[in-house]
What we know:
By secondary structure, this protein is an alpha+beta fold. Helices cover 24% and strands 31% of the residues. A five-stranded antiparallel sheet has the order 2-1-5-4-3.
Amino acid sequence: xxxxxxxxxxxxxxxxxxxxxxxxxxxxxxxxxxxxxxxxxxxxxxxxxxxxxxxxxxxxxxxxxxxxxxxxxxxxxxxxxxxxxxxxx
Length: 89
């Protein structure tokens, strides 16, 4: 599976790559604006993480997991994000 094939399955999620965090929609838009028409990204391997996120690694020449390409995270629910009011007590 190619990177863009994976990302298109998680449109409302966040994608962290190289220390930057993107919405998946913004990452896809950025990629598609700068890539050749047929470029779907590298071949990748995905693994579910304990927190429900997904690690995405490129495949090496033998088809084994290679370099970490990024991490997908589910959107935070409003109840899981504390506000200034919540912290004031």
